[in-house]
Design goal:
Layout lengths: L5 H11 L2 H19 L6 H9 L3 H23 L4 H10 L4 H19 L17 E9 L16 E8 L5 E8 L1 H22 L9
Antiparallel strand pairs: 1-2, 2-3
Protein name: COMM domain-containing protein 3
Organism: Tetrahymena thermophila (strain SB210)
Family: Belongs to the COMM domain-containing protein 3 family.
Length: 210
């Protein structure tokens, strides 16, 4: 079970214990793969199931099913799980043989589609973006004038230089000047961004799509 996120495992186990999930699984599975392959969201099935739902709990299950199945597909693809590994994971969280078979069939078609280099739509699944890459950081501090009467004299006294490498393998510097307070805030925001990215990688903050 260490092949996938423990958080995702918990979500799948909870779903398979929900009888309403079992009744909408086939339609939702088809809808998930359809939305992954189309350029625009296709919410027809989701809207139909929500309209037919007899309680708020069932409507919530529709949303949860969509989100968790999308997460599952993304996790399997991200970790390059093979058919046997996928079968083991799904069986251990409570999927029946029939549910596993249907998932495997659609998933293999999905992988074949996005792996086709000649398929224009496959480019939409390439998450790489040609941003400049950060390769070095340099800084220096100007001289500081101070007196016991003036606390902030020559405040913006830090020069920061970020060396980035562009798509043509050329160094492109980004230079700016800041105070110690601004530099501290920048470092704090970067640290926060790193934590959020790490958490997102573990699939812990996937938000429901309404």
């Amino acid at each position: 079970m260490n092949k996938v996120s423990p958080h995702l495992v918990d979500l799948l186990v909870n779903l398979t214990q929900n009888s309403f999930f079992l009744s909408i699984y086939d339609k939702m599975l088809k809808s998930c793969f359809l939305n992954l392959l189309e350029e625009e969201n296709n919410l027809k099935v989701i809207n139909q199931l929500q309209s037919a739902a007899q309680s708020d709990e069932e409507r919530d299950t529709v949303n949860e099913t969509f989100n968790v199945l999308i997460l599952t597909i993304a996790e399997f693809n991200r970790k390059n799980l093979v058919e046997l590994e996928i079968e083991i994971v799904l069986k251990e969280v409570g999927f029946s043989d029939d549910m596993i078979s249907k998932f495997q069939q659609r998933y293999s078609q999905f992988i074949e589609f996005i792996s086709d280099k000649d398929n224009e739509r496959s480019n939409f699944f390439d998450s790489s973006i040609n941003f400049n890459k950060l390769v070095d950081v340099d800084w220096k501090q100007e001289y500081v004038l101070s007196t016991k009467y003036i606390k902030h004299l020559n405040k913006d006294n830090y020069h920061i230089s970020l060396s980035t490498l562009n798509s043509e393998n050329q160094i492109s510097p980004i230079n700016f000047k800041c105070s110690i307070e601004q530099l501290t805030e920048l470092v704090h925001k970067l640290s926060s961004a790193v934590r959020n990215i790490e958490q997102a990688t573990d699939l812990k903050h996937f938000k429901a799509q309404e």
